[in-house]
Amino acid sequence: HYGEIYNKDRVLDQVIVTIFRAPHSYTGEDLVEISCHGSTYILQSIINELLDSSPHIRLATAGEFTKRAFLNGRIDLSQAEAVIDIINSKNKYALKNSINLLNGKLSEQIGNLRAEIIHNVAFIEAALDDPEHISLDNFGDKLENYVDKWVKTAEKLLITVDNGKLFTQGINTVILGKPNAGKSSILNILSGRERAIVTDIEGTTRDIIEEQINLNGITLNLIDTAGIRNTEDIVENIGVNKAKATAEDADLIMYVVDSSRKLDENDYEILKLIKNNKAVVLLNKSDLEPVITVDKMKELTNNRVFLVSAKENTGLEELTDYIVDMFTEGKIDFNDEVYISNERDKAALDNALESLRLVKRSINEGMPEDFYTIDLLNAYEELGKIIGESVEDDLVNEIFSKFCMGK
Questions:
Q1: 213 φ/ψ angles, rounded to the nearest 5 degrees
Q2: Phi/psi at 348 (nearest 5 deg)?
Q3: Are the CB atoms for 228 and 266 separated by under 8 Å?
Q4: In this predicted structure, what is the pLDDT of residue 87?
Q5: 173 with 103: CB under 8 angstroms?
Q6: Which residues, other chains included, contact 321 with Cβ-Cβ below 8 Å and sequence gap of 6+?
Q7: Would you state the pLDDT for residue 20?
Q8: Residues β-bridged to residue 209
Q9: What is the 3-state secondary structure (H, E, C) of the chain?
Q10: pLDDT value for 351
């Protein structure tokens, strides 16, 4: 419906009002949407007019629309969480995975697992209640085949956790190096803007500088740090210590080396920091006469070394391709595959997998069939937590409190 919204005799805006009748709406309830012009002032004026018009109208709480959709059975919990993942997606892989979740790809797999588990539990219970008509002879062998299949499914989903976090949270990438090695220049080139101050004065970067970039479809959380060196400057020394601490928690370290300067004690300090981390070495200033070779750095670091020039912007394209392959192993297939990206789902899958393994152990040890049902039901309950079939109200409230106001 096209019309005008008034405040007394004054027209606030010309709008389109769309009416959704239950159950054909996002929440499954009667719903009205007002489409107005994109002015914050107009939007707020319309909201104020509605709030003033009736004591029964209030602002929705964070996540209330999606929470109502979940409570009314329009979507399950994994689909509801996919909504906020779509809103927060920062790259094409995160978006595609979230859409797969919203379309029920994970729900379907979990639902099939639970249906097969409860079917076998029901068969055992029926046989125990009516042994004259239902036999459990050789049932352990049949159940073991099912359990093996369920375990493989759960393990396959758990394998996706690292990539799921990678897509949604990004790769925490710390740039390390001595002062004036070219760290800030590298950050500026990768981010496509003058994010960090670049000078010939050593120690210019004293604190952590963060920038998020999209790198061939995945997100890099770039962290530029103070140059690693021994210094008497109190403020710079704080920055150096921050750099070392940040490197310990990094998913990836970019070690930037000035190829025109000999390695010194500061470089060897950095080599200790990258020893047990995923790292790449950027042999910078390749436009100058080198005193350090690629082979030498490979020998010292046992890491991939790239010859680059921040000044001439060369060598970084090969680096970006390598980083993507490093974390995805060059294989990302998004046909019907879903990636687990949150800790709640991971914990539930871990617990379900443990229960299924206990079932297999009971079968192998020749335990009575009623022992199977205990662990099968535990697995069934844990899997139910993923789609919201068995979750406490407090957890539901906590999940939806993270949503934005509009959803």
A1: -130, 155
A2: -65, -40
A3: yes
A4: 80
A5: no
A6: 216
A7: 96
A8: 224
A9: CEEEEEECCEEEEEEEEEEECCCCCCCCCCEEEEECCCCHHHHHHHHHHHHHHCCCCCCCCCCHHHHHHHHCCCCCHHHHHHHHHHHHCCCHHHHHHHHHHHCCHHHHHHHHHHHHHHHHHHHHHHHHHCCCCCCCCCHHHHHHHHHHHHHHHHHHHHHCHHHHHHHHHCEEEEEEECCCCCHHHHHHHHHCCCCCCCCCCCCCCCCCEEEEEEECCEEEEEEECCCCCCCCCHHHHHHHHHHHHHHHCCCEEEEEEECCCCCCHHHHHHHHHCCCCCEEEEEECCCCCCCCCHHHHHHHHCCEEEECECCCCECHHHHHHHHHHHHHCCCCCCCCCCCCCCHHHHHHHHHHHHHHHHHHHHHHCCCCHHHHHHHHHHHHHHHHHHHCCCCCHHHHHHHHCCCCCCC
A10: 95
CB atoms within 10 A of CB 64: 17
CA dist list (Å): 202 to 102, 117, 137, 310: 50, 64, 79, 17
| Residues forming beta bridges with residue 16, ordered by sequence position | 2, 35
Residue with tokens 């409230």: 397
The amino acid at 343:
E
| Model pLDDT, residue 374 | 93
Which residues of the chain are modeled with pLDDT < 70?
192-208, 216-217, 227-240, 328-337, 390-392, 394-395, 404-407
| Cα–Cα nearest to 347, from 313, 314, 391 | 391
- Measured between alpha carbons, how far is 216 from 213 in angstroms, rounded to an integer? 10
Predicted model pTM: 0.68
267-307 pLDDT tens trace: 888 888 787 778 888 888 877 888 888 888 888 888 888 88
As given in the structure block, the two tokens for residue 212 are: 């998020």
Say if CB 303 and CB 294 are below 8 A apart. Answer: no
At 198 the pLDDT is 42
Distance from C-alpha of 33 to C-alpha of 20, rounded to nearest angstrom = 8
State the distance between the two ends of the chain, measured CA to CA, in whole angstroms. 23
**How far, in Å, are 30, 186, 221, 228 from residue 180 at the CA level?**
63, 11, 22, 10
Question: What would the two tokens of residue 235 be?
Answer: 């403020």
- Determine whether 4 is exposed, middle or buried from the number of CB atoms within 10 Å of its CB (0-12, 13-18, 19+): exposed
The Cα–Cα gap between 273 and 252 comes to: 12
